[in-house]
Design goal:
alpha+beta, 6-stranded mixed beta sheet, 10 strands, 4-stranded antiparallel beta sheet, globular
Amino acid sequence: MNTTPSLLHTALSLATSGVPVLPLRRGKVPFGNCSVCVSNACGGRPNMKAPGPCRCPGVCHAWAAATTDPAVIASPPWAAAWRRAVCVGYHPGGAGLTVVDLDDADAIAWARTALPATRTVETTRGEHWIYRGAVRSVNAVRPGVDIKSTMAYARYLGPGTGTMADLPDAVRALAVKEPSPVRPAAVGVPAGAGGGECPHRTPAYLARGIAMAEQRITEASSAVHATVYRTFLAVLSTHGRCGCLTDAHVARLFTAAQSKGETARHCTDAWTNARTTLGL
């Protein structure tokens, strides 16, 4: 059954109330960038920190595509995405909200003792606790607990129950992150005899591999730490010994990871652990 009309109706209703929305495809992840915008070739949102200068009419740039403009939401480029979508996503931070995503019973039990009651929405595995106020998004702040607000998206699963409370200091404290990103040069890019040119793969293969790695990280909807590590491991297992990786490639991977809430330290640790596993 085609659920597009229902999804579109829900999206337009949310947009009217000031909640920026976007379609989510199978796997409950955003649609990937179009061929013009892939790997931010368009020059827009290189660090996923702003909604421009890209003017792509499609559903590009993940959470940054979220909008309250009904003309965009119902436009022909978006209509194609809604036909393939499985649910509606929204940008909590863009609506001045924070979602505390509780993945299991233990996380819910913790929230009931540590956080004030607020609007609650049931999820497949746990609950979303929604507060009024925005903070920086961070994954895995506690076992089974993610914070989704600015620079992130959440699934819309219904209006929920209960009265929405103001964002508590306890959540703000969990969202504190290390301030400065690590310079890619410090992570130890393996050098090789190839002098930066991969001897067994074409440059196009490397470029495609890095783009796919970025997309895999940015589309992760859970287990972000593990996804980042596995992606770093895959990139290094293919190109870590031939000298084709550059600081620019590593910077792109780190930027993708940090856009999902990973800290600079976590990126460096994951990269180092991946190198150690491979004996690099």
